[in-house]
Structure formats: C-alpha cells, structure tokens
User: Fold this.
Amino acid sequence: MPLIRKDSQLDTSRQPEHSEGAETAAAEDRGGGPAAWLVARGLIPETSPKRVFAAATFVNQIGKGLFIAGAALFFTRSVGLPVSQVGLALGAAALIGLAAGIPVGRLADRRGPREVFRLAVVVQALSVAGLVFVQSFLSLVACVCVVELATSAGTAARGPLTRTLGAPNPTRYRSYLRALNNIAVGCGALAAGVAVQVDTRTAYVSLILGTAVMFLLSAAVASRIPSVAPKPVPPEGSRWPALKDKPYVTLTALDGIMTIQNQVLIFALPLWIIGHTDAPRWFVGASVAVNTALVVCLQVRVSRGVVSNASAGRVARRAGVAFLLATALIAAAGGAPGWVAVVVIVLGVVVHTMGELWHAAASFELSFGLAPEHAQGQYSGLFAIGQGLSNAVGPPLLGVLCLGWGEPGWLVVGALLLVVGQFVPLVVRWSDRMRVHSPG
Assistant:
C-alpha cells in the first residue's frame, strides 16, 4: 500500500533526460524576478523540490555545525565529564551508528526516502535534546549512540532523495548541496562560538537545545518535499544486494581510504603548522578559510564534467595525483622560514582542495551510478560506512604518519592516496563488466 496518494508522489523514472541548460532555461521561462536571476547563475536549484530539500539540508547542517563546535565542551565544561570519557563515548557511538546505514537504507528504498529521512531527523532532534539530562558516562553513551544511529539513518535516506530530486544529473545537485553545507556548518560553528565564549551552563544548554530545534525545523521543511515512489524490485533480486556487490564493496573501501584526506586540513595541518613550521599560528584559521572558500565557489563547477562512471574514475585518478603533490608541498613547509612556509602551505592547501573537489565529484557520481535504482538507499548506507570508518581511523593514522614521522610520513600519506586513486577506474570497469553479465 502506498503511504500517500499516488498523485503526490515524485517518480523520476518517467522523466525525460534533458540538459541542465534546458532546466535553467525552463526555470527562466516560468517567470522573471530574483528567482530566475539566481537560477541562471546557479545560486539556487532550478525546481521547487530541489530548493526545498536544499533548504531542509541547510538548516540541518547548521545544527550539525552547532553540535560539532560545542558538544564536546558541553560534556566537559557543563556536565563535568573527563575528556577521555567524552572522547571514548563519541568514538564508540560513531562506530555503532554506522550499523544503521544499510538496514535503514533498505527501509528507505521500500517505504520512501522522504518519510524515512523525516523520521530520522526527528529522532535525531529528540535524542540531541535528551543530552541536557546527561549526568554520567553511561547516560552519555546511551544518548550519543541514539544520536549517531539517527544521523546514520538520515544519511542513508538522503542518498536516494538526492538522486531522485537531482535527476538527470544528481552529481551536480549533490555538489551544490556540499557547497551549501559548508556554509551552513560554518554558520553553526560561528553561532556555537557565542556559547563557548559565555562558558556557562545556561549557554551550553541553549546550544544543545538550539541544535535540536534546527533538526526539528529541518524535518518540518522536508515535509514539503514530494514523496518519492519506491522503485520496483526485480523478481530475482536479492534482499541485500549491496553486501553481495563485490565491486561496490571494493569501491566503498577505496573511497573510505581516500576520505582520509578530509582529515588532512582540519586535523593534521593545524598541528603541523603550530608544531613543525615557522608559519604564524593565526594561519591555522586562514588555511581552513581558504579551503572552505574554494569548496563553496568551485565544487559545482568542478562536478560539471563528471557525468558518467568512466569520467568519475578519471577524476578520482586525478585527485590522487593532487593529494600527493599537496602533501609534498605541506611537508616542504617544515624546513622553510616563516613567510616562505606560509606561501608553500597556501599552495599545498589550494592543490589539496582541488583534489578534494575532484574526489567529492567522483564519489558522488560513483555512489549513485554503480548502484541499482531500486536499492539506492541500501547502497548509500553501505557507502557511508566506508566514510564513517575513515573519519574514525583518519586522525590517529595521520597523527602517527604526518606528525610522528614528519616529512616522510606526509609523503607516505600522499603516495597512499595516489595509489588508491589509480585503482578506482579499474573498479569501475569491473563493475561495468559485472552488470553486463548480470543484467537483472
């Protein structure tokens, strides 16, 4: 039984393929004014459902920024828990949360991703609000596990929503959302800074409750997204095709390794600048700002040429080369005098960011393109596991290699990312061969 009336469902299987330029022209033809001007310049999506989902995602990511910047300080300075216990609880919860991705993704495939996304975000909001009652290590573990399970569930449901609403080019739409998310997380982090500066119980509780409100508002906005009709499942299809898809599992592992690059600029580089170079300390923030500005301005532009699995494989290979060059530049800053180190690090950040943009575009395209239409949620949940494990493993690995070994360690990281990038096109061709021999 469908959850809502069929005439209010969004089924893109019958939508004709058309170019992005045609979508933009159509949007302009529907009327002038500010909206048409913004669409023509790529500042807002072409259609109303895309804009609504972008708004829901933007609000959600503001909440994420609040939580990332202030949660750990709430637990240590307001609740009074030791840093070691907070770190253990957050790390364990992040790993446990990954377990929700595949089963919730399958539920999204069968019951509709919009409904599952809204439910996950509501649970996320309620569990975050429950953090204000945390008084012990065990209660912290219980609450943050629910938060992470809901977060993982929302990520799994977001995949098929993005693919359907973003048709015929979901990679470009996902790139737009990524640029928007960077702005939103930054706004949330800046707002959290107010609570951190005030440094009182009331301020920290307000931060946590503000996060919950953002999540609830995101769920409310998402209610305006058209329901997505589930895709029919092939009669001979498996209940859990993602786990049996060897090329996709391999791609998930490779992408997880390459996702370690996300920790380079936010974890390894700041510690490298302060402890191993003569660059001024304030440059830590400047390097992050350069990266954020480039992502916001260039992510959509970089993704325009990534329209097939083959092109995504080529871009992933290019990303690996960029990461090796970037790590070599950052390593070279270790022996350079002050302002020379600044210039070298800026070059390293720019090159690394280009690799990040290429990696993101390839990751978006392959996560959609190598997954069957009827199991996008399940595959999205699997793909998120690789990225989640990377976020857990990345900091300690970079700490040992880049900060412990110094310059040689940076080169080892770059070489690892280079090799992974070269393997991605091979996995793409493997997947294409498997689909030819198994058309069902």
